[in-house]
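TASK: fixed-backbone design
INPUT:
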């Protein structure tokens, strides 16, 4: 699932004020739909979601080219580079920096354990694996799993096949192991790629039967594991998303689950946001079930996670991201879209759910109670 849909691209030219009219005080009607709960998504919906890959990669490349963060690999996934407006560049920087700081906490918690796992759900054309492998300060004691729809995985494998730099980050012996027409065709046809540090496979997150891909990719259910889910669960039915969250908490006793998605569908800006995203063919199927931060917290705590911390993106930027990084990036572009920035960032959250048998590990994680470390 290529759900790395850019949070800012649809709204960059709408200078709307949030009147907060309280027109919909029935926010807690989580499932006020008279129809039976959806347990699948339409083919056209799936295709629209897959189609967001190119736009998301383009937005990331724009932020990289301006200098917000380093990613020498995302260029391979973009056909036509476009410089995006500062609002979008800063938004993607915030997302990337938040993920990196949370993943750093995870690595530090288990620094004495020689095997860890990261699982990217709905990975799209994300390049985080390559950036981690390119970071000399990070110990390479992890295996990175990426799963998405079969079409996305096939396309990602094809891109990897065409670029030696990507291949070398996956396996130094790529040419000897994979570079034959027969082996390359097999990877594409089976939507699967596997090396010592990187595993890529196809999945449908609305169908738990397809989770057998993790066994095919030789997942280890007994080592610390971190899940990444950026604009993924909100696009699938509530029950399906709950099943994913429950499966992760049931299967992995030492784990973290990082989710990035939209909230607040019932105020003026939220209704506009939903309408714009629906026009792209990507309705937010579970946003009404979890419209506010506390609804998100109840969701994860009720599905097996020991501790759930949540910040909207406005507070991620002001309170969580490292101050030095903010000073560096705020010099890059003229930025005068503060009202719009606050509106948009207040409608997106990061959820950081953790599970551990060690109370000290749970207590050591910080997110909500940080102040620009």
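OUTPUT:
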């Amino acid at each position: 699932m290529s759900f790395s849909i850019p949070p800012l691209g649809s709204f960059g030219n709408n200078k709307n004020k949030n009147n907060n009219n309280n027109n919909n005080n029935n926010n807690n009607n989580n499932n006020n739909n008279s129809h039976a709960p959806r347990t699948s998504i339409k083919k056209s919906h799936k295709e629209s979601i897959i189609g967001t890959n190119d736009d998301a990669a383009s937005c990331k490349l724009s932020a990289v080219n301006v200098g917000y963060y380093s990613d020498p690999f995302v260029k391979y996934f973009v056909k036509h580079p476009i410089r995006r407006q500062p609002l979008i560049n800063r938004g993607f920087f915030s997302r990337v920096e938040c993920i990196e700081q949370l993943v750093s906490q995870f690595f530090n918690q288990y620094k004495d354990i020689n095997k860890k796992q990261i699982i990217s759900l709905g990975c799209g054309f994300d390049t985080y694996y390559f950036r981690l492998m390119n970071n000399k300060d990070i110990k390479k004691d992890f295996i990175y799993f990426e799963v998405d729809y079969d079409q996305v995985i096939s396309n990602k494998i094809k891109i990897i096949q065409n670029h030696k730099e990507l291949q070398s980050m996956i396996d130094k012996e790529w040419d000897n192991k994979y570079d034959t027409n027969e082996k390359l065709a097999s990877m594409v046809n089976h939507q699967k790629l596997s090396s010592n540090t990187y595993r890529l496979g196809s999945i449908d997150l609305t169908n738990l039967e397809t989770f057998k891909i993790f066994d095919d990719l030789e997942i280890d259910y007994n080592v610390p594991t971190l899940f990444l889910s950026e604009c993924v669960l909100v696009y699938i039915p509530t029950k399906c998303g709950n099943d994913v969250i429950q499966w992760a908490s049931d299967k992995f006793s030492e784990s973290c689950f990082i989710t990035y998605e939209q909230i607040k569908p019932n105020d003026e800006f939220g209704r506009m946001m939903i309408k714009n995203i629906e026009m792209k063919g990507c309705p937010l199927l579970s946003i009404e079930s979890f419209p506010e931060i506390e609804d998100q917290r109840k969701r994860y705590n009720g599905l097996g996670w020991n501790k759930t911390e949540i910040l909207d993106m406005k507070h991620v930027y002001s309170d969580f991201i490292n101050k030095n990084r903010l000073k560096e990036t705020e010099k890059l572009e003229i930025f005068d879209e503060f009202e719009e920035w606050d509106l948009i960032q207040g409608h997106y959250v990061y959820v950081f759910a953790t599970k551990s048998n060690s109370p000290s590990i749970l207590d050591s994680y910080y997110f909500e109670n940080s102040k620009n470390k």
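COMMENT: The two ends are 33 Å apart (CA to CA).
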